[in-house]
Amino acid sequence: MTAGQTVLDPAGTPAAAETERQKLRKHFGRFDILFFLLCTIVGVDTIGTVASSGAEAFTWLIVLAVVFFVPSALLTAELGAAFPDEGGPYIWTSRAFGRLAGAVNNFLYWITNPVWLGGTLSVSAVTAYTTFFNDGKDLSTPAFYVFTLLFVWVGVLAAILSFDVGKWIPTIGAWSRFVLLGLFTVTVVVYGIQHGLHGFGLGDFSPTYVGFVGLVPVLMFNYVGFELPNTAGDEMTDAQKDVPFAIFRSAVLAVLLYALPILGILLVLPVKAITGLGGFIDAIRQVFTVYGGHVGADGTATLSGAGSVLGDLAAIMFILTVLSSGVTWVMGSDRALAVSGYDGAAPRFLGVISSRFGTPVRVNVLSGLVSTLVLVLAHELTDGSAAKLFGAVLGLAVSTTLVSYLGIFPALAVLRRKAPHVPRPYKAPFPRTISVVLTLLILFASVQLVAPGLGDHWFGSDYAPDGWSYGERWKYLLTEAVPLAGFVLLGVLFWALGSPTRRAAAAKE
């Protein structure tokens, strides 16, 4: 039992926790954490969505890096080093606000990832495959399911494997990001020299409130995740030293790895031609014509020779990159849910660590089943439209993810007050200010996701999501609010089902 647990959990640690934690293995070193963080934070599936807002997107990306990304790094560096127990964000939230708050928050934190893996990420991988290996033609329904289900369950298998094996997926994913985004950025420069670039004036970078409302949720979605390695806190070799080291280095790399490709897309493609699903993939295909191929009068890019070879290589790296994003988030959030299971905030059945693998296999399998269900339902409900499926699932994933941080971010200030004498190898400056600012930003983004434009012109033409009209604003509100409310109720149910574990801990005392 750590000092943090003694202070923050006066009822005592459940016997179940002591039993399960003994099965965990220490395989998570400094550079493993760094690569894990890069896969967590740097996702390529939303690059096109951000770039589709034009040059203004680059401005807001930099602004939020300063007012959101850096403060969240400071916050997580303190909490991760001071309270390095397995479960990370669940431990911080539950010890700050109680197990009920921790249970609800942790369910939201977990559920978004199988939804994201089965929807947004799998469809992004399919799009890359069809663009480069199937001449842009959609897969048949059976082929679509074979590809996407293989994608999902390979990810689940990687999460099941012990960390000394499974961690190689994030490592490979981190290097695929470096190569893919680096090669793309260099190629944009070559393309610009040969063909010229789309120009935009300084005025195009001017930030607007409309742009802020549209961009802030997805940019925050890209910028969260510093806490994820701490879900495997008891598997780290030296969390107190390695967590701050990895967080601050990954923060710098993440901003560069987002900013350069987004700027590159804006330089290469007209804004009207950039789509959320295919924007980055289309830009890769177009700029790679410098190695072989041409761009037709209608804007269609055709690769040949070395361009075709490099394009295929880029597609493989893109698929590896989105797969590693899903794997890292599933690895982390599944561990957090398992911890809440043996801590009394979820069914005890889920709080089991495999003696063979040292991983929460039961939760891993549950994540795979949820991903599969989301994939099938979303595909059938959108009549097989990849673009609609991508947009629908991304909106749900973003909103669910952001709401979960309403419990994580305030924990810094609360734990400073509740546990002032817990050793803090790193202390964030202005903890109360950081907690308040980050929480308010998350609250604003969450409200705008559910009711776009609220406070100005709710669901007006500048705010309504693509494909929705003003008359459908209540329908849209329900499509966002009902799943969130359902997830909250499921979190409460999980807490109720964890009561036997809590009673056993209380009786032990």
Describe this structure in words.
Helix content is 69%, strand content 1%. By secondary structure, it is mostly helical. A two-stranded antiparallel ribbon has the order 1-2. Strand 1 and strand 2 form a beta hairpin. The chain is globular and about 75 Å long. The relative contact order is 0.20. The model is unreliable at 1-7 (pLDDT under 50). Pfam families: AA_permease_2. The chain crosses the membrane at residues 31-51, 57-77, 107-132, 144-166, 178-197, 209-226, 247-269, 313-332, 361-378, 390-415, 436-454, 474-498. Keywords: Cell membrane, Membrane, Transmembrane, Transmembrane helix, Transport. This is Amino acid transporter.
Concise description?
By secondary structure, this protein is mostly helical. It has helices at 3-8, 15-21, 30-41, 47-51, 55-82, 89-97, 99-133, 141-160, 163-166, 168-195, 209-223, 239-268, 279-287, 306-343, 361-381, 386-408, 411-418, 431-450, 473-497, 499-508; strands at residues 293-295, 301-303.
Full CATH superfamily name? Amino acid/polyamine transporter I
CATH fold assignment: Amino acid/polyamine transporter I
The count of domains is: 1
State the CATH class: Mainly Alpha
How are helices and strands ordered from N to C?
HHHHHHHHHHHHHEEHHHHHHH
> What fraction, in percent, of the residue positions are helical?
55-70%
Q: Mind summarizing the main beta sheet?
A: 2 strands, antiparallel
Transmembrane segments: 31-51, 57-77, 107-132, 144-166, 178-197, 209-226, 247-269, 313-332, 361-378, 390-415, 436-454, 474-498
Membrane topology: Multi-pass membrane protein
Keywords: Cell membrane, Membrane, Transmembrane, Transmembrane helix, Transport
Subcellular location: Cell membrane
